[in-house]
Write a structure and sequence with these properties.
7 helices, single chain, 2 domains, Elongation Factor Tu (Ef-tu), domain 3, 15 strands, alpha/beta, six-stranded antiparallel barrel
């Protein structure tokens, strides 16, 4: 983990409350792994006081840039969303533990809301390791990627143009049926469970908890990127601890990626 003051080079509004920010920092772009996050100071003043954590969404290692997906939920994220290209931000990065997909035959990525960000980078990572492969024309050396992505309504989907080139199978679900399959992404994901599948998930806790129950019913485990209120984002304040079967874990440094087998449930 290092502290940087880096430039915002591009902003893109993806939905009514969602923005994609592109930052330039070759050190972060080279080091970032799927599941890790950055911690950004929203303002040079003391209001708001605390940093805000965001999953690293995509990286361009050659250009030295990376993106974060920002959803406006309060004054801190609103300040960040309002930044314009050329602004410089104070950032800690990269933070936390990443997904481990070494040796995996088939990845099932289950995303809800802004949980799509680290899973998009995970799909990108797989393709980086197998640069000659293409979705739909996959050789047997690259793991297959099944990407299940859920939203309340179709207008809330973001980054589909980034996901589609990376997914062998893209499954969209909406609560209201306005796009894709009507229902929950966890139910759609369950239809892809098999003995070769490795499950990676990020999204709202109720969604991941439902997925965990479906996995356990089939004797499956996986990896999840967890969310909780973070104060310091460096492991000092103990504000983001969550219960596990091996004691409490700090999401900021013991996670955010944890193996599901140490979780009784995802409900806090």
């Amino acid at each position: 983990m290092n502290q940087y003051v880096i430039a915002l080079v591009k902003t893109e509004r993806l939905a009514a409350d969602s923005f994609l920010h592109t930052y330039t920092c070759p050190e972060i772009a080279r080091a970032a792994r799927a599941g890790q996050f950055v911690s950004i100071l929203p303002s040079a003043s003391s209001d708001p006081l605390l940093r805000r954590p965001f999953s690293i969404c995509t990286v361009d290692r050659k250009a030295g840039t990376f993106t974060v997906l920002i959803k406006v939920v309060g004054p801190g994220t609103k300040l960040l969303a309002d930044l314009v290209p050329g602004s410089r931000v104070d950032m800690l990065a990269p933070l936390g533990l990443h997904f481990d997909w070494e040796g995996v035959k088939k990845l099932l990525l289950v995303a809800g809301g802004v949980g799509v960000a680290p899973l998009l980078l995970l799909a990108q990572e797989v393709h980086e390791q197998f640069p000659d492969s293409e979705p739909g024309r996959r050789d047997t050396t690259r793991p297959e990627i099944v990407f299940c992505y859920g939203a309340r309504t179709g207008s809330q989907f973001v980054l589909l143009d980034h996901i589609e080139p990376l997914a062998d199978h893209l499954v969209l679900t909406t609560n209201d049926g306005s796009m894709g399959i009507q229902g929950f992404c966890t139910e759609a994901a369950e239809s892809h469970f098999d003995e070769d599948i490795s499950i990676f998930t990020c999204g709202p806790n109720p969604m991941m908890n439902d997925l965990l129950k479906r996995m356990r019913a089939r004797g499956l485990e996986g990896q999840c990127s967890l969310e909780n209120q973070m104060g310091c984002t460096i492991g000092a304040c103990l504000g983001c601890v969550v219960p596990t079967t091996k004691g409490y874990r700090r999401i900021c440094i013991d996670g955010p990626v944890l193996p599901t087998e140490i979780l009784d449930e995802i409900n806090w």
